[in-house]
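Quick log. Single chain, no ligands specified.
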Amino acid sequence: MPTQNVAVLIFDEVEVLDFCGPFEVFSVTDAYAAERPFNVYTVAEKTPILARNNLSVNPAFLLDDPNCPPPDLIVVPGGRGTRQAMHNERLLAWIQSNAERAALTLSVCTGALMLARAGLLEGLAATTHHSAFDELRAVAPNTTILEDQRIVDNGTVIVSAGISAGIDMALHVVARLHGIEKARQTAGYMEYDWRG
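-> predicted structure:
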């Protein structure tokens, strides 16, 4: 399988582990291989991004950068910033247009609110951070909310519960695309106690 591009969308007040967890998983998969399975990069509307607790992050690419590789996988993290970002038409348009071409669209935590606003959860099942179930129901009335699930895999759209669940979701995707042993190897490299 050729190297797949993984675009991690970031925005102000994004939850740090929401985007850094999956970023780390995809970045270290087959860490010692000559040809890596994933090319991981951040994308944002502006630079810098002030993540939760004022962590300043310089994205690799801006939304309209013609040099940004077309993503095969999209990661939409959550955090308090989703409450504003979910009304940002530029971010939603980027998610929609890239999701049409990408093999997989993933969300972590309240990133599900952004997927819902982009119309990507219509008729599907989803989860989110335990504190945001009612918000997700309000935004996505035609989505089945599975409160007891850490990961919900709808095929091309995969969502996870809050914060650290994004690491489990990313390992789930590694297992789906490259096999369970590759995912276990990645979790072992990270010294992460994964039960996948």
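The longest helix spans residues 165-178.
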